[in-house]
């Protein structure tokens, strides 16, 4: 079970959109892993070889595609299941 912890003193009130059709960015979802805040990976979309390793194009939960990032495999140690799901899709 994951519990989100935050300092209430650092929160600011959310302002609703002023105009009809105004885009509202979703609030980023942070997960606490090994006592560190980590953004949650929704899915891996691609991979590529760089230098001696592999990088994965990561889609972050609650973010749009323009926020996707190429992340080195060693930095994604906590999302092994997401990487395994990606490879299962590639192989099928």
Give descriptors for this structure:
three-stranded antiparallel β-sheet; 13% helix; two-stranded antiparallel ribbon; 92 residues; alpha+beta
Describe the overall structure.
This protein has 92 residues and is α+β, with helices and mostly antiparallel strands. The protein has one domain (8-91): OB fold (Dihydrolipoamide Acetyltransferase, E2P). 13% of the residues lie in helices and 33% in strands. The chain has one helix and five strands. It has one helix at residues 80-91, and strands at residues 30-33, 36-39, 41-50, 53-60, 69-72. The strands form two sheets. A three-stranded antiparallel sheet has the order 3-4-5, covered by helices on one side. A two-stranded antiparallel ribbon has the order 1-2. A hairpin with a 2-residue loop joins strand 1 and strand 2. The chain starts with 29 loop residues before the first strand and ends with a helix. The mean pLDDT is 80.
Total number of domains: 1
What string, H for helix and E for strand, traces the elements in order?
EEEEEH
Percentage of residues in helical conformation: 10-25%
Q: Assign the CATH architecture.
A: Beta Barrel
Alpha carbon gyration radius: 16 Å
What is the overall number of helices? 1
Q: What integer is the average pLDDT?
A: 80
CATH class: Mainly Beta
Cα shape = extended
In whole angstroms, the N-to-C terminal distance is 32 Å
Residue fraction in strands: 25-35%
Structural class: alpha+beta
Q: What are the low-pLDDT stretches, counting only 5+ consecutive residues below 50?
A: none
Taking strands numbered 1, 2, ... along the chain, how are they ordered across the largest sheet? Answer: 3-4-5
Q: What quaternary form is this?
A: single chain
Number of strands: 5
Major sheet size, sense and barrel closure = 3 strands, antiparallel
CATH topology: OB fold (Dihydrolipoamide Acetyltransferase, E2P)
């Amino acid at each position: 079970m994951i519990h989100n912890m935050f300092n209430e003193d650092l929160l600011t009130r959310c302002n609703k959109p002023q105009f009809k059709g105004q885009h509202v960015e979703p609030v980023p979802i942070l997960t606490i892993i090994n006592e560190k805040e980590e953004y949650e990976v929704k899915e891996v979309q691609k991979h590529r070889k760089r230098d001696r390793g592999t990088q994965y194009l990561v889609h972050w939960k609650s973010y749009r595609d323009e926020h996707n990032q190429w992340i080195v495999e060693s930095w994604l140690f906590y999302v092994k299941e997401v990487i395994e799901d990606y490879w299962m899709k590639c192989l099928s």
